[in-house]
C-alpha cells in the first residue's frame, strides 16, 4: 500500500440490497417489491441515512404528486425543460412542477416490466428513438404520474427525438404550451452580446427572444394558479433555486476533490438529477441535499471514503439509462471527478442582479444542448483541467439524435486539448447483456490511466472490486 493510502483508515464500503434493506427499515424492499422497482436488488448503496433519504425522496416522487393533486395543488409538467420552468412554477402558491421525461428511468428501475416501451411502440415510437420514449408510454398507460394540469414544452434547438415524441403526446389530446428555444450562436462582429451563466457569449437578441417566450409561460402559470406571478415572486424563487444549486456545487466539489470519494458515483448522480425540477418538492430537495453535504463533509474530516486513493479520476458525460453503470464505475477502480449530465446550466447560478425574466432567459439559453458541441466540449475540457480529471467517459444515449456525432466531437476536442484517454460507451436501459463488455472497457480505461502516471504516483497494490 502506498504512503498516500496509508494515511487513511480503511475505506467505506457500499452495502448490498439485502443488507441495506434490513438497516433501512425495509424501505428499499418496499420500493423493490410493492413498487416494482426490481432494479434496486442489483445495486449497491451508500450505507448512510442521508443516502437512504435520497433514495426514498427519488422513489416516492409519484406518490408525492398524487398527494399534491388530492390536496388541490396544480401540477405543471415541464417537458424538455432542464431548470427554468420549474423555478417559475415553484414561485406560485400550491403549484408543483415535475419532469414527465423522467419516466425514461422507469424501464431500468422495473427491468422492462413497466410496459412503457411497448406502449410507445404501439404508437410508432420504437427503439430508433432514445429511451425518453418511455414518457410517451406513461401518457398511454396513465399509471406512472398524474396527468398535469398544464404541459409546457420547449421546441426549436432541442433534441429532435423529444420534439417528435412531445408532438405525439399532443396528438393524443394532451394540450401543450410550446415555447421556442433558438439555437445559441456566437455573436457576430458589432452585434450586442451578453455573457450567459457558465461563461458562454450570445447575441442579446437571442436572450430577448427567450425572455418573450418565458413571459408567455409566466402568464400561463399565473392563470393556472390563479395568482399573480410578479417580479418579486420570481426573484424569491430564483434565490431559492440558487441556494440549492450552491449546495449541489459544494457537494460536487467535496466529492471530486477529496482524497477518497466521500460519496459513490451512483448517489452523486441522483443528487445532481434533483436539480432540474427539485424532484417535485423544492423544499424537501434542499433538505436532502443539505443532509448529503453534511455527511460527505463529515467523512472527509474523518478521512473516510469509498474506493482507494489511487482510483482513476474520471469525468463522465451524459446520464446513463441504467443506474447500475455508475456502480460499475466504482467497482472497476474509478471514481467521479467531474460530470456533465446535460444540464450544467442548472448548476450555474441564475443572475440575481438582473430583472427575473431576463435572468431566467440567460440561464435557459446556457443549456449545453442548444449550442454548438464545440462549446460544450471546451467547457468539459476546462472543468477536467480544473479538477484534475485523468480520463473522459462519454456515455452515448441509445437512439438519441443529439448523441449521433456530438460524442465524437467532444472526444476529439478533449483529447486534443488535454491529451487524456477517452472512451465512448453506450448504456441501454438494462445493461445486463453488455455488462461484461462494459466492465472490460472501464477496467481498460482505469489501467490506461494508471500506466500514464509517474511511477511514484502509481498505487503499489490494486484493490479487488
Mean residue pLDDT: 91
- Principal-axis shape equals globular
* Strand line-up of the largest beta sheet: 4-3-5-6
Q: How is the biggest beta sheet arranged?
A: 4 strands, parallel
- Count of alpha/pi helices: 19
Describe it.
The protein is of the alpha/beta class and 465 residues long. It has one domain. 47% of the residues lie in helices and 12% in strands. It is built from 19 helices and twelve strands. It has a four-stranded parallel beta sheet with strand order 4-3-5-6, sandwiched between helices. The longest helix has 27 residues.
Features of the shown structure:
465 residues, alpha/beta, four-stranded parallel sheet, 12% strand, globular, disordered C terminus
Summarize the structure.
Helices cover 47% and strands 12% of the residues. With 465 residues, the protein is α/β, with parallel strands linked by helices. The longest helix is centred in the middle third of the chain and has 27 residues.
Topology summary:
Layout: H1 3-6, E1 15-16, H2 17-23, H3 27-34, E2 44-45, H4 49-59, H5 61-70, E3 74-79, H6 85-89, E4 95-98, H7 106-109, H8 116-121, H9 133-141, E5 150-156, H10 160-171, E6 176-181, E7 193-195, E8 201-203, H11 204-225, H12 231-257, H13 265-273, H14 282-302, E9 312-317, H15 324-331, E10 334-340, H16 356-365, H17 373-387, E11 391-396, H18 406-418, E12 422-426, H19 435-452
Parallel strand pairs: 3-4, 3-5, 5-6, 9-10, 9-11, 11-12
Antiparallel strand pairs: 1-2, 7-8
Helix pairs in contact: 4-14, 9-10, 11-16, 12-14, 17-18
